[in-house]
Design a protein that fits this description.
The structure holds two protein chains of two kinds. In chain A, the strands form three sheets. In chain A, strands 1-6-2-3-4-5 form a six-stranded antiparallel beta sheet, with no helix packed on it. A five-stranded antiparallel beta sheet of chain A has the order 9-8-7-10-11. Chain A is mostly beta strands. Chain A has three domains: 62 residues, SH3 type barrels; 60 residues, Beta Barrel (OB fold (Dihydrolipoamide Acetyltransferase, E2P)), CATH 2.40.50; 59 residues, Nucleic acid-binding proteins (OB fold (Dihydrolipoamide Acetyltransferase, E2P), Beta Barrel). Chain A contains one helix and 16 strands. In chain B, strands 1-5-6-11-10-9-8-7 form an eight-stranded mixed beta sheet, sandwiched between helices. A three-stranded antiparallel beta sheet of chain B has the order 2-4-3, with no helix packed on it. In chain B, strand 3 and strand 4 form a beta hairpin. Chain B is globular and about 50 Å long. The chains are: A mainly beta, B alpha+beta. The interface between A and B is medium-sized, with 23 and 34 residues.
Chain lengths: 190, 312
């Protein structure tokens, strides 16, 4: 496994600490002119998202993490397992519902996501910032009510519910921001 | 890739103006400007400096980490007040406050006492930066005042306790660091950041950090200039005893090997000069780029260097 020495430390480096992959998000080099060099690092855990403050002294080293980001397509769900296919190699990857977390709400057949692989295994999934989803069920809205401040829950093709303006009807396609889960706009009316 | 400088034209013009001011300051004080080689057969043996060896025409030569050796050879050869503004290269030093290649101002004066040398450095900072006279504070008092710790007499376990009380993120290898490295960390991480809007000359470093300064066994006649927590200059009432330097070189190489670094050549033409007799003198090295950072009121060395190493 490749090793990074302190003089190679820089923002953006992917390293391994206690078996977990980390991204170096900040690196400050401090050194008294005649003294020891210190490297003050902020590192983000690529699995859990937690941030770690660590200081290293000149001559220390960290193992490189075998981390790579790939584009994948969502294929299908089987019980607690979500199956994806890498766009370039057609390699299939499985993620548990725990790893997919709330992102299942945005996954329909063919949705293109970005996946982080660590030692060849998938660890995180990021859906596109915006997805378009078909409304499968909702209560009818009052006729002519186009105000956006009156809202109601609607159920979409993935089985998830989103809060939308009251004028949304079954058969509409809506656009959702996956980072917040917020409704953005109506894309089409059937 | 951008071809443009990282420093603004305004800062580059300020640089030029400050360099001219420095040269006239030294001329008025009776110093002669000298030039010595960037490439040398010798190098400073320092535990934490990593010189670069280059191969030219079949010969291995060091890029200087400072012009100290060559300038002391001139002093030993009869010159008595000299300065130069040149480049130095140190491997592994790159960041917001460091550039691998940097501009160094260094001066030596024969017969200048330890006190007079600190005084001269203070007055230089006043004249060039237009600040009030830097405070004179001992290394020991600085630690006591800033973090309530005695760097000379307190135990290392007390250092550890203070570091944790101060909420510092100490290096993983803290317990394996020696006393001086722990002090280096406390100075850089806890003390320097507290010194905003303060100019000071810190003096009487622990004897174990004497480098090339004269020492009485407990403290060394070594001093540094800090402005707003930024380390600007390092000076010595110079060590004259060649045998003492040979001993220090040998000890330093032992530490370098233990740290996993290369051994550096212990004999040098500086030692030849000291054997023949180096007169009593003081000397100071000052980082020009950092001086420009203070003059320009900026936080990054990239704002005052046209082309830092990433863009060189």
């Amino acid at each position: 496994m490749a090793v990074y020495k302190t003089n190679e430390f820089r923002k953006g480096l992917k390293v391994q600490i206690d078996g977990d992959p980390y991204l170096m998000i900040e690196m400050n080099f401090v050194k008294p002119g005649k003294g020891n060099a210190f490297y003050k690092c902020k590192l983000r855990n690529l699995v859990r998202g937690t941030v770690l403050d660590r200081t290293y002294k000149g001559g220390d080293s960290l193992e490189a993490a075998d981390v790579e980001e790939v584009g994948v397509q969502y294929l299908y769900r089987q019980g607690d397992t979500f199956v994806f296919m890498e766009n370039k190699t057609y390699e299939q990857y499985e993620l548990s519902s725990e790893q997919v977390d709330d992102n299942w709400k945005y996954l329909k057949d063919g949705t293109t996501c970005s996946m982080v692989l660590y030692n060849g295994n998938p660890i995180t999934l990021t859906p596109p910032n915006h997805v378009e989803l078909l409304v499968e069920y909702c209560e009818p809205g009052a006729k002519g009510d186009t105000a956006t401040n009156v809202t109601k829950p609607v159920k979409v093709e993935t089985g998830a519910e989103f809060i939308c303006p009251a004028f949304i009807e079954m058969g509409n396609v809506i656009r959702i921001d996956t980072r917040s889960g917020d409704y953005i706009e109506r894309v089409s009316v059937k | 890739m951008s071809f443009r400088p990282t420093a603004s034209v305004k800062n580059l013009e300020l640089r030029s103006k400050k360099l001219a001011q420095l040269r006239s300051h030294f001329a008025e004080a009776g110093f002669v400007e000298v030039e010595t080689p960037l490439l040398s057969h010798d190098t400073v043996v320092d535990r934490h400096l990593h010189p670069v060896l280059v191969s030219i025409d079949g010969e291995d030569l060091w890029l200087q980490t400072s012009p100290e050796f060559a300038m002391k050879r001139l002093i030993a050869s009869g010159m008595d007040a000299i300065y130069q503004i040149t480049r130095a290269v140190r491997s592994g030093e790159n960041g917001k406050l460091h550039n691998t290649e940097f501009t160094i101002l260094e001066w030596y004066k024969v017969g200048q006492s330890y006190e007079a040398a600190r005084e001269f450095l203070s007055s230089l900072a006043e004249a060039i930066l237009g600040i009030s006279p830097p405070e004179q504070v001992t290394y020991q008092d600085l630690f006591k005042q800033s973090i309530d710790l005695d760097p000379i007499n307190d135990s290392e376990s007390l250092f550890t306790r203070r570091a944790s009380e101060l909420g510092l993120h100490v290096p993983d290898a803290w317990e394996t660091l020696d006393r001086d490295s722990k002090l280096d960390f406390l100075l850089a991480d806890a003390i320097q950041p507290q010194q905003q809007s303060r100019a000071m000359v810190v003096y009487d470093y622990p004897a174990s950090q004497a480098a090339l300064a004269a020492s009485n066994g407990e403290t060394a006649e070594r001093f540094e200039l800090f402005i707003n927590g930024l380390e600007l200059a390092n000076g010595y009432h110079e060590l004259l005893d060649a045998q003492e330097l040979r001993d220090r070189n040998r000890d330093t190489n032992k530490q370098r090997l233990a740290d996993g670094n290369d051994r550096l050549p212990e004999e040098s033409r500086l030692l030849d000069a000291m054997d023949s007799g180096l007169p009593d003198c003081s000397g100071v090295a000052l980082g020009i780029d950092r001086l420009m950072m203070i003059a320009a009121g900026t936080e990054s060395i990239h704002d005052v260097i046209a082309f830092p190493v990433d863009r060189a």
